[in-house]
Design goal:
Elements lengths: L1 H17 L13 E9 L4 E4 L2 E5 L2 E6 L1 E8 L3 E2 L1 E7 L4 E7 L1 E2 L9 E6 L5 E4 L7 E4 L5 E3 L1 E7 L2 E9 L2 E10 L3 E6 L5 E6 L2 H4 L7 E2 L4 E4 L4 E6 L3 E3 L4 E8 L3 E4 L3 E2 L3 E6 L5 E9 L2 E12 L3 E6 L3 E7 L2 E5 L1 E9 L3 E5 L8 E6 L8 E14 L5 E15 L9 E2 L16 H17 L7 E6 L7 H21 L7 E5 L8 H10 L6 H5 L1 H8 L2 E7 L3 E2 L11 H5 L6 H7 L17
Parallel strand pairs: 1-8, 10-17, 14-20, 22-28, 30-36, 38-39
Antiparallel strand pairs: 1-4, 2-3, 2-5, 5-7, 6-9, 10-14, 11-12, 11-15, 13-14, 15-16, 17-18, 19-20, 21-23, 23-26, 24-25, 24-27, 27-28, 29-32, 30-31, 32-34, 33-35, 35-36, 37-40, 38-40, 40-41
Helix pairs in contact: 3-4
Length: 588
């Protein structure tokens, strides 16, 4: 009789708890409304805005506005939706959950709770996704079986209701053991053997009777693989994963992910991706490493690794060429120096010009450097060396002689008369040679420095030397030289050659001086000072002060007294011989 009485009391207590009035979510207010919710299965638990309310169909008073309503039952697919509550009105909501999940195999341990039967039980998490049932489903295991079956292990248990944590702590279980959490005694934990858990067959995810319930918690599983675990920089691969019975799933470097799926990844270094799945049944992890070859590849070559170079003055007579060819792989940044190209692959034909600019033999190596790098931090450098041989020679020599004038020529009224035949021939040759010379010395110029002997005033001689310089310039221009490259510098009677200098010049003259030149040294000295020196710039090479001894017109140039206009004009004709040139009236 006593046992029967206890059973009746227990049945009455459970029934009374099932049908007690639902708690009020908020204090009564004219701005509140009511939510009348009907759930299936009838044991399903209601959460409002993430807070555990209670199990079963019920009416909940809520502040007006939008609320997130979640209905959960282990072994079923949860439903979460936004519901608008209107002030002073009742909102009806029907929620029917669909069963899901396979049976769960043992061995098992049993976790039992005592106290606060309407409170929600969460394993290994604090959000509704970790809900496994309420206390009244797990508080009896005698005649009527109310069991929370778990695999052996340690579980973080949270018991909560209406946003308040009733109890939270770790519970460690072993197969064939029953662990009781006494909520009514501040969470005191007791254990005892429960051999039935060692031999139980596979259990459905949720089974409930009139006063019984069995909820076996499935362990979490996780699988992760990479389509290709070895990549070059810039390549991608797909990660594929699959989990079961997890409430929270994440992959390192990717963040939260769905329960199963695939994702393309492009790592820039060796990367380990770890899949972590958390659920009421515990934690499962699996990782996969994707190795990345960060080193780019590069090649560079020359079609002709040695070329010959020859330069005379400014003119390049020979400059061989070569073609630089390069290619890269696994790179996103390329520099080819010294041609400063950024193409990933390419070729360029270049003329081999040495750095050397001075005269002398050329023997240089020019290095072409290819540097390739990528976003993975990899870099490689390749080189190709070009050998340049040859020489840089000075411009070919050019012979320049000074131009000599007869006394007092050119006259002011006959500015074009004064250049005798021998001097015109010399200037004609100079014009031809100078034009050829400018191929080798592009900056070449001429400066005409005109002189007069000591006779006459400074002013007179200044004007005379101006005419002499202009006459030479005009003659050169008439033979093809540009006036822009010819400068004149009239010196008048300044900077006279002295007697000793004249004697030295005569001694060096390849032509023997005439006897009349030797007899009258002063006249010879005067003749040497009636000249126009030609200076080759920028070298500063000055014309040789060589008197035209032996020329048919030499005596016309030499005579101290001013020769007649007719005599000078005759001396200007190339066909005139010495015999045809009349003697100077002075006879000296």
């Amino acid at each position: 009789m006593r046992m029967r009485l206890v059973l009746v009391v227990a049945m009455f207590s459970s029934a009374a708890l099932l049908f007690q009035a639902a708690p009020v979510f908020a204090q009564s207010s004219t701005s509140n409304g009511k939510l009348h919710i009907h759930v299936s299965p009838k044991q399903a638990y209601v959460f409002v805005d993430g807070k555990a309310i209670r199990d079963g169909s019920q009416t909940i008073e809520l502040p007006a506005g939008s609320h997130k309503i979640g209905v959960y039952n282990y072994g079923y697919t949860e439903k979460v939706q936004d519901v608008q509550i209107e002030s002073g009105k009742k909102t009806n909501l029907d929620v029917a959950l669909q069963a899901s999940g396979d049976k769960v195999s043992g061995p098992f341990a049993d976790i039992e709770f005592k106290g606060d039967p309407r409170a929600a039980v969460l394993l290994n998490g604090t959000t509704p996704d970790y809900f496994v049932g309420h206390v009244d489903e797990f508080d009896w295991n005698w005649i009527w079986h109310q069991r929370l079956l778990v695999k052996p292990g340690t579980y973080q248990v949270t018991v909560t209701r209406e946003g308040n944590t009733i109890w939270s702590g770790q519970v460690t279980t072993k197969a064939g053991q029953q662990v009781t959490v006494h909520l009514d005694r501040n969470g005191a934990i007791t254990t005892k053997d429960w051999k039935e858990g060692l031999n139980m067959g596979p259990q459905p995810r949720f089974h409930a009777g009139v006063a019984s319930a069995t909820v076996p918690i499935s362990p979490v599983s996780a699988q992760l693989s990479a389509q290709n675990a070895s990549l070059s920089c810039g390549q991608s691969t797909n990660l594929n994963w699959k989990t079961a019975d997890a409430a929270s799933i994440s992959i390192t470097n990717l963040g939260d992910v769905p329960a199963q799926g695939d994702r393309s990844v492009s790592p820039t270094k060796n990367t380990t991706y770890e899949l972590t799945a958390m659920g009421p049944g515990g934690k499962a992890t699996q990782d996969v490493t994707v190795n990345v070859n960060t080193q780019p590849t590069a090649t560079i070559s020359l079609s002709n690794p040695e070329v010959h170079y020859h330069q005379v003055g400014d003119k390049v007579e020979e400059d061989g060429s070569t073609t630089v060819t390069w290619s890269t792989s696994g790179a996103n940044s390329v520099v080819v120096d010294p041609i400063n190209s950024h193409a990933m692959t390419g070729s360029e034909t270049i003329e081999a010009k040495p750095k050397q600019t001075s005269v002398g033999p050329v023997n240089e190596n020019i290095t072409y450097t290819l540097t390739a790098s990528n976003a993975c931090g990899g870099t490689t450098t390749q080189t190709a060396s070009l050998h340049v041989t040859g020489s840089i020679d000075p411009p070919p020599p050019i012979t320049i002689a000074s131009v000599f004038y007869p006394t007092n020529y050119p006259r002011p009224k006959h500015a074009k008369v004064g250049l005798v035949s021998s001097e015109e021939r010399m200037l004609a040759n100079l014009a031809t040679n100078f034009q050829n010379y400018t191929q080798y010395e592009k900056k070449a110029k001429l400066t005409l420095v005109a002189h007069a002997d000591v006779r006459g005033s400074k002013k007179y001689n200044k004007a005379l030397t101006e005419r002499r310089a202009e006459a030479v310039k005009n003659y050169l221009v008439s033979h093809g030289l540009s006036p822009d490259i010819i400068a004149t510098q009239p010196m008048g009677k300044e900077q006279q050659l002295d007697m000793k200098k004249v004697e030295m010049l005569q001694a060096k003259n390849p032509h023997k001086p005439e006897k009349w030149m030797k007899r009258d040294k002063k006249t010879t000295w005067l003749a040497y000072n009636r000249r126009v020196d030609i200076v080759l710039e920028p070298q500063g090479q000055q014309s040789a002060e060589i008197y035209p001894d032996g020329a048919p017109d030499a005596r016309v140039l030499w005579t101290r007294k001013e020769p007649s206009l007719k005599r000078v004009e005759m001396a200007s004709k190339a066909s005139v011989s010495v015999a045809q040139v009349p003697a100077d009236p002075a006879g000296k």
